[in-house]
Specification:
Chains A, B: Keywords: Aminopeptidase, Hydrolase, Metal-binding, Protease. Chains A, B: GO terms for molecular function: aminopeptidase activity; metal ion binding. Chains A, B: Pfam families: Peptidase_M24. Two copies of one chain form a homodimer. By secondary structure, chain A is of the alpha+beta class. The first copy, chain A, is built from ten helices and 19 strands. In chain A, α4 (about 110-120) packs parallel to α5 (about 135-145), α7 (about 165-190) packs across α8 and α9 (about 285-300) runs antiparallel to α10 (about 310-320). Chain A is elongated, with a radius of gyration of 23 Å. Chains A and B meet through α3, α5, β9 and α8 of A and α3, α5, β9 and α8 of B.
């Protein structure tokens, strides 16, 4: 007999507005090319070229184009931004690209050739061209063959660090969906019952995969996608930082949920909560108290002007004070305290020992201390915050409790 | 007052087995490095290197590693495959990588540097190195600086064309989920009611976004992800080939659903159906008859040894015979007849005029003729087929009807 299907993931999606949609009700996303223009001036360069496909996040930021899975090009020169798009995506490119020109001439030619033609159309046919360091090698070679000297620039990655209001709107919205996903999983765990060495729910044994499908169903109901990032682990697999496989949910063990969906305009959310069904109050209780204290210590440091490494050091000091290792071994606090979030799930700034940059107002970062024991489990708590001049604002709030509750 | 939430997308998910999961019950995915070894021999090269992140599909195929969103490297030399993975992903890399060696030494160094070190560890420190043409430029430069001459190879893309049984199992499974998603949308359209210039369902006006969320909820319930590819258009937006925005569903207009989810092991599904609520039997009826005939004509050609272009030409001839333009203007049949599907949604072979390659047994291709009128709508029917020695096998079957039905 086939197992019966699980209950409605949209039970938890009450409030999802079926008519609200691809962020079309929010202020339009612009991209300020001013920092590119300034970089060209400073470096004595004639233009900037990026080449990639829909999975290239710099290109998504520069063009807002949710293009195809083959290479296209963005060109900035003589104060003008140009998108070289496939002809079959012409309408979509014109709808999405905030820059000046969509070129579909030469489509079918390699993206590097098309970029050189777009430069030529602006009267630029030689000199220093700035490119991201990871530009596809074939495109780089074609640009060199067209007479340009290439130098790499991190200007786009830098420009992405500080978020505009329209970006914050999107980050808040996708984070709200992520929090609803966590609420669904927490409600399931609250209803779960210990039965020997398994937790059962809805008439059958509960697994990380059943939880994941329920969370992802809620994300879908809110118009965002799970993006392959819905991490659910239990016990030892909760100590495996990116576990997306199948495991049983067992009583007394930590259930770690890390939910990082992507919204329709490309911005990510990111939240982690940890629960235990029928906790005996051992390792996981001590770990939870320590991680909550580290979270508080890290958040207390967030403000414009603070070195990113300071945030990490404060979190690590708190975990060490609670008796957990912070030396990068395979147990204790094994990762950094956080990372920037935008059109990439992981971007600048990094809240880590090597994060020597100062935080700026408008940085959006995760704060996610955690401790792990490969034999026992893992506890991580993660929130998303925007840095302000004198502190921070959480992008969405969600309660913390090792014991799961139905938050209704 | 907030609109009430939409009904349970898992109504249509009956049969989704909550315990079946990340394809762990299927035969393990191997990757045959034999074609790489043969290419090295034929070209007199000492090794092969690929560098990319989790969004690089060649790398996914070579490593089976669902790695991080930053660059890592794959190296094949001296008959051995090596994955240079981030230390934080060590467990995951060892679990997923079917090759010989996972290296986490030098982690933190640029991927190109790590690849050169892995080559050196195999006693390879100079000579011709084969790389994909789109290898990141910085990695290419670092390999050149380490003493290698780079030449590009399409060997990986070529190796991916013919699917092994374990790959077909995954393609069938993700396609089954995609078909359940279409069934959900069709059931909603069957229950939809014409009300003036809108179609209403579940007490409110129906939109492309409500349909998309319902489809994506079903995909989530089946353990696959929508991957941002759930295209739903109505009328003129159905003629916009990749519409993922918000539009009303209107009576008498074509509703086009193109569902291309990705399964846990990275393989895609791809199916399109077109419906109309309360069709008056005009353009859309003629278009539907023509597209069905073109589909039949294209499928009839599928077999090992047939030039890919022949399949396209037969579909185009059928559409032309039905009075539709096939000359690449913005109306009529404006795209190719199909494309390969695997760990990329679009890969070789291409069923198009330029597709001069012969089909091989084990190719998995879409067959998706369609006709469009930018003012009126679009009709497309798409199925996924594996080519066999004497014909083809559909990877999942789904009924065809312009009038939507509840398929229960």
């Amino acid at each position: 007999m086939a197992p019966r299907p699980d209950a409605d993931p949209t039970d938890a999606a009450a409030g999802a507005d079926p008519e609200s949609a691809p962020d079309s009700d929010l202020d339009a996303l612009a991209t300020d090319y001013g920092s590119l223009a300034a970089e060209l001036d400073a470096r004595g360069a004639v233009g900037f070229v990026a080449v990639g496909d829909r999975f290239d996040d710099d290109l998504r930021y520069l063009t807002r184009f949710s293009g195809p899975d083959r290479a296209y090009a963005f060109v900035f020169a003589a104060g003008e931004a140009t998108l070289c798009a496939p002809a079959l995506f012409d309408d979509q490119a014109r709808r999405e690209f905030p820059g000046g020109t969509v070129r579909t001439a030469d489509q079918g030619a390699p993206a590097g050739v098309r970029a050189a033609a777009a430069l030529d159309a602006r009267g630029v046919d030689g000199g220093t061209l700035l490119v991201p360091q990871g530009i596809p090698h074939d495109a780089a070679v074609r640009l060199e063959n067209a007479g340009f000297d290439l130098e790499s620039t991190a200007a786009v990655r830098e420009a992405r660090r500080v978020k505009a209001d329209a970006e914050l709107d999107r980050l808040r919205r996708v984070q709200r969906a992520a929090l609803r996903g966590v609420a669904r999983a927490e409600a399931i765990l609250a209803a779960g019952e210990a039965d020997g060495d398994r937790v059962t729910w809805n008439g059958g044994p509960l697994s990380t995969e059943r939880l994941r499908r329920q969370v992802n169903g809620v994300l879908a109901a809110h118009g965002v996608r799970d993006a392959g990032n819905t991490v659910v682990g239990c016990g030892p697999t909760a100590a495996d930082l990116h576990f997306t496989g199948l495991d049983a949910v067992r009583p007394g063990e930590t259930v770690l949920l890390d939910v990082s969906p992507r919204g329709p305009d490309g911005y990510y959310g990111d939240v982690t909560r940890t629960f235990a069904v029928d906790s005996g109050g051992g390792w996981e209780r001590r770990a939870y108290v320590a991680v909550e204290a580290a979270r508080e210590a890290a958040l207390d440091e967030l403000a414009a002007g603070v070195p990113a490494s300071t945030v990490h050091e404060e979190a690590a000091a708190e975990l060490a004070a609670h008796g957990f290792r912070v030396d990068g071994a395979d147990r204790g606090f094994v990762h950094s305290t956080g990372h920037g979030v935008g059109v990439s799930l992981h971007e600048a700034p990094s809240l880590s020992t090597s994060g020597s940059d100062e935080l700026e107002a408008g940085n959006v970062v995760t704060v996610e201390p955690g401790v792990y024991d490969p034999e026992t489990g893992g506890v991580r708590l993660e929130d998303l915050a925007v840095v302000t001049d004198d502190g921070y604002e959480l992008l969405g709030e969600y309660p913390r409790s090792l014991v799961p509750h139905d938050r209704g």
